[in-house]
Design goal:
With 709 residues, the chain is α+β, with helices and mostly antiparallel strands. It contains 14 helices and 34 strands. Strand 30 and strand 31 form a beta hairpin. It holds the Pfam family zf-B_box. This is TRI36 ligase.
């Protein structure tokens, strides 16, 4: 085989250069030892810096593909921590197969060095630099050309130096020597797991050489292994047969090569034809624009000439009103006529003209407009159309914005999906604008995104925004997705946690470690009060408040009530009444208000009691109960709404207003007045089996995690 014909097989997929000390990855691809370390260093930097910028700049030698960088970012966002190049479990983005490979506990130290490939690379280098001689390592200057290389000494010698350093009758005389080379490899392949043991078996499960200690008590203890000689014979036979088969199909391979050559030429000619068609299309547009431009300029020029003519005539008329000039000069000459009959005959018509000139002086108005506002070309729609001008393909799917996974809170999280089984786009373009019916022209803001979601900041409160997205694969783009309109919260988002100190009843309520969720353990309070039910006592609610108070301004927060919840009350409480809240031993708004009421839900709570030390509304049994006053009762069913998946509260301290919202669409379901004389705190009450989860704030990491899931 011509050694120069296999150069493609000897190139490292990471650095795109000839292999240097190649390592065999578990996926059976080879990568330079130095490249593996640099990629892992880039991998580690991505964890330390929280992104891929450092990995992109970590080494000018390796050329990591964008897909590999995306995988590094994706794994770094998963939260796995690594402190060295040999972590307990090292993931390595293979540049050959584009997959994440687990290097195991030993990391790089557990990889075999591919000495066979190293030898072939060295032979290739020698063939490529046949004119460059390998010099003796021991000659005094000037060194002689070497004739031998000792594999045991890892050095090259000329004939004289070899005799001196390998005298007959010594141990060195038994050393193995080959022709001049710079590639020295050990005579025995040692186990990377047990460095003092040579490999003498082959694991058929892991497809790698192992030593006897690996089989006895290592990770290959339960694997099927065979002797190295058997594996050598079997693999060599298979490889020989496969090579013979390929050689026998040489004519078929050549036919495919010829076909590919034709396809290359056809691709070249088709691309030139596509360029010509695109050029013709743009030239056609250019000609059309030139025609429109010429017509517009001609219209402006014609209007200009007409206006100049009218203004010039008007100027000449007014010039005639000057003394001894024009009309006035003519009238002055007429006044010199002494014959009455001749004077009257001429003066009558002249007097009419003089009167008109006098009237024009009193109400001066130019004969033509000087502005050309009527000739402004409106190209807004054309600009938008030309902005969308690109290569469209019917084969490219249209992305769809997922309204359920998209979220409007402190920031906007917009998520979309790529339909069908085809590969997703290389890049997406997300556009959005504020919906304003008063403005006729909308200006879209554009963002390029490499993932399938994007977090957008700095949106106006209490506003609607339209979103759309399209995908690009190379220069081909998909049509725009259907526009989706989402509304921002009515006020800035208040960030708080459940307070685990002020009045918190740890026997009845259970907080999660992050204090973002609270749960009442079903049945426990009911069992405690079961003996008193016979004598008409009431079941109590368990209260909990937020750890952040509001003294002024307008604020919004959202939460989620579990569907199984029996009774949950939410609202606000003033700092002046917190003590009364937690010392209120009876709950007069419980669904068990009367023993014989016959109700099994929270419908009684629809009546709002103004004597409460706080302002709360009731949720329960998958329902939202709108409060009413006893003085103006309504149909009970008209005050009961389905429980939204996400709820919001908006408190306006300045106006003394409290609103309850469907946080999914930011629609106000109920609003009431509230006394904001003190510092106001978010308040919650639970009874029976119930749970409340505070809405998680949208962050950049939230969007990245959402994209992965």
């Amino acid at each position: 085989v011509a050694i120069k014909g296999i150069e493609r097989e000897l190139i490292c997929p990471a650095c795109k250069e000839l292999f240097t000390h190649p390592l065999i990855l578990p996926c059976q691809h080879n990568v330079c030892h130095k490249c593996v370390k640099e990629i892992l260093f880039a991998f580690e930097d991505s964890f330390a810096d929280g992104g891929s910028e450092s990995s992109n700049q970590s080494s000018p030698r390796i050329k990591i593909s964008s897909s590999s960088l995306d995988r590094i970012d994706r794994v770094s966002r998963s939260g796995i921590k690594r402190n060295s190049l040999t972590p307990r479990s090292s993931l390595f983005p293979c540049p050959g197969c584009q997959r994440d490979i687990d290097l195991g506990e030993r990391g790089i130290n557990g990889l075999f060095r591919n000495f066979t490939l190293e030898t072939i690379v060295e032979r290739y280098r020698q063939a490529a630099r046949a004119a460059i001689a390998i010099m003796c390592d021991f000659c005094k200057p000037p060194p002689q050309e070497s004739t031998k290389s000792c594999m045991d000494c890892s050095a090259s010698y000329c004939n004289e130096c070899f005799k001196i350093h390998h005298p007959w009758g010594t141990v060195k005389a038994q050393h193995e020597y080959v022709g001049p080379t710079t590639n020295f490899r050990p005579k025995i392949l040692m186990c990377p797991e047990h460095e003092m043991e040579r490999v003498n078996m082959y694991c058929e499960i892991c497809k790698r050489p192992v030593c006897h200690l690996c089989k006895l008590g290592g990770c290959h203890a339960n694997h099927r292994v065979t002797t190295m000689s058997t594996a050598y014979k079997t693999l060599k036979e298979k490889l020989s047969k496969d090579i013979e088969y390929l050689i026998s199909k040489e004519s078929q391979v050549k036919a495919h090569i010829s076909q590919l050559d034709l396809l290359l030429k056809e691709t070249e000619s088709n691309s030139e034809r596509a360029k010509e068609e695109a050029s013709r299309s743009f030239e056609k547009l250019s000609h059309l624009l030139e025609e429109k431009k010429s017509a517009a300029l001609r219209a402006i020029e014609a209007s200009k000439n007409l206006r100049l003519e009218e203004l010039q005539m008007q100027a000449e008329e007014y010039q005639g009103l000057l003394e001894n000039n024009g009309l006035v000069g003519y009238a002055q000459e007429v006044l010199k006529e002494t014959d009455p009959s001749c004077f009257v005959q001429t003066a009558k018509q002249l007097h009419v003209r003089i009167q008109k000139a006098t009237e024009s002086l009193e109400s001066f108005r130019p004969a033509a407009e000087t502005t050309f506002e009527d000739f402004v070309v409106d190209i807004a729609k054309q600009e938008e159309i030309l902005g969308d001008l690109s290569f469209h393909s019917n084969d490219l799917e249209v992305p769809e914005i997922n309204e359920e996974q998209s979220k409007m809170y402190n920031k906007a999280l917009i998520s979309w999906e790529w339909p069908g089984k085809t590969e997703s786009a290389d890049i997406y373009v997300l556009e959005y604008h504020k919906v304003n019916r008063e403005e006729e022209r909308t200006t879209w803001q554009e963002i390029e995104v490499s993932s399938k979601c994007k977090v957008i900041s700095d949106l106006d409160d209490d506003s609607s925004y339209a979103f759309r997205v399209r995908g690009y694969k190379g220069s081909i783009c998909s049509p725009w997705s259907r526009e989706v309109i989402l509304r921002t919260p009515p006020a800035p988002v208040l960030s708080f946690l459940f307070d685990d100190k002020c009045g918190y009843n740890s026997e009845h309520l259970l907080l999660n470690p992050g204090r973002t969720s609270v749960e009442s353990r079903a049945g426990f309070p009911l069992l405690l009060g079961s003996e008193r039910v016979q004598v008409g006592c009431y079941t109590t609610l368990d209260y909990i408040i937020g750890d952040t108070g509001i003294a002024k301004g307008k604020h919004f927060w959202a939460f989620h009530v579990e569907a199984y919840s029996y009774l949950v009350k939410v609202g606000v409480v003033s700092s002046n009444k917190i003590q009364k809240l937690f010392h209120n031993t009876r709950d007069v708004t419980s669904p068990r208000y009367e023993q014989d009421s016959g109700h099994d839900s929270g419908s009684e709570d629809a009546f709002f009691d103004s004597s409460q030390p706080f302002t709360l509304v009731t949720f329960g049994m998958k329902k939202f109960f709108i409060p009413t006053t006893p003085a103006a009762p309504k149909d009970p069913m008209s005050t009961i709404l389905p429980l939204p998946s996400s709820l919001g509260i908006c408190l306006d301290c300045d106006k003394g207003k409290l609103g309850f919202y469907d946080a999914g669409c930011m629609k106000c379901l109920y609003e009431c007045e509230v006394d904001c004389s003190g510092v106001m705190y978010p308040a919650f009450a639970l009874m029976g089996g119930a749970a409340v989860h505070l809405e998680e704030a949208v962050t950049e990491k939230y969007g990245e995690y959402h994209d992965d899931t």
